[in-house]
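Progress against Task 2.4 (sequence-to-structure conversion) is shown through the following example record, which the project officer requested during the mid-term review.
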Amino acid sequence: MTSRSIFVKLSSSFGLNFLHGIGLNRPRFFLLASIIVFVVLVLFLIFDSHQDSSSSLGGPILLFCAAGIKPPVEMAVRNYEAEYNCKIDIQYGGSGTLLNNLKIARIGDLYVAADESYIEIARQKNLVEEAIPLAVMTPVIAVPKGNPKGVYSIQGLIDGNYKIALGNPDAASIGKISKALLTNSGDWPAIKEHATVFYPTVPEIANSVKLGTVDAGIVWDATVNQYSDLDLVRVPELELGPQKTTVGVLKTAKDSVAALRFARYLAARDRGLTQFKNCGYVPVSGDVWRVKPEILFFSGGVNRTAVERTIQKFEIREGVKVTRVYNGCGILVSQIKAGEQPDAYFACDISFMTQVQSYFDDSTDISETDIVILTKKGNPKQILELEDLAQTGLRLGVANPNQSALGDLTRRMLLSKRMYNDIMKNVRVETPTADLLVNQLLAGPLDAVIVYEANCANVLDDLELIRLDLSLAKAIQPIAVGRRSGHKHLARRLLEAIQSPQSKIEFESIGFRWIQDRDKGI
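Structure tokens generated for the chain above:
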């Protein structure tokens, strides 16, 4: 009996016994008894609410899990519930069956699929928001210990006229993958004809081989690793089909922070993934576990307005902390080379990602913006092109070439036009970021500045923009995850948020051009 039920029982019993003891008549007894029961129930609800909020990380969580992944997931759930006083309810089934149920029911918090193709389908159906990989599995032939029938190939299964168990392609991931692989090899019609039974889950296939109901079955290698009385046979037709077991966070999750927290726990190298390894799976390289992880995000100053709102939403949804460092890319690159290890870096230009690419995974180009001249309203100095910046007496502001990507790109642009010395003699201010230049132009001491168009969106009522018809007057913004980050998957989800359609709107609203879709051929 729980402490809560004991509390209710003792309180009610004490109250009712007390009323009996003071000798009330029957009507008054039932009236006061009802009042006491009501008060006790209210106190119980207060007690229950307080206990949940003080000792739990949220929940309960409803998790739909592929039956073949039950052993490691169930152990991770038990550990998490014990450690954090959370309740996680699990429903098992074939990956396909669960997905079909999710389409209809539209409930639940998490979905663990045996292979990521089901997660992609769930994304397309607008069922899943985030996805985190867990482990890699490969299809194999399962046979009784010692392989008494001598099964060593797909053709041997067919020629030997053996009893075979397969997964139902419409219900189980292993069935779907087996059908696809054997269709490609040309073996599916024959092996389908020889199949004795099609099961909706992997454990049912393995158990039928174990019990001798069938001679062999196609399952995951990790499944066989969990049965001491089974052996596995690897064949080339199936070796082509390794799949990633993946956990998806459902759009119907009632508490995204709680759902994502357990998903991170399940996918953590020092928590859930140890259970996958113990159960014979090949786990991915997961993040380190933290209840509230913190990641370090380096970004060139020009990107700040475009990403800040997205990052704030990301922190709220994930229940994490993103420490932002916005600065000139020259300064950021120097810090990285000096030993700083950001989990992600969003550069102002490709040239400043190239300098530190060895510290990061492959980068993705997100956007581009033009380099422009910004001057006073009405353009009193009559600046129409780059050459006009060399006029006598003009007070110019530029970015520092050693501290910022803008400064470096400006220097290259001036050198290419052979106007570097003529224009630089008018420079009165060099800053590490473009926003400082804009502020100084607004304040009055400068006549013009060279900045990014993305710096100008909020000041065009007071200032005037002059475009430059030059191939070098452009910067491309790449983003990448730190190679040595302890939270790579979390950082990748942040990058996914920055690459989302909602983020695209933010970028374009302040003068960036979205080029990621262009790179994909969209």
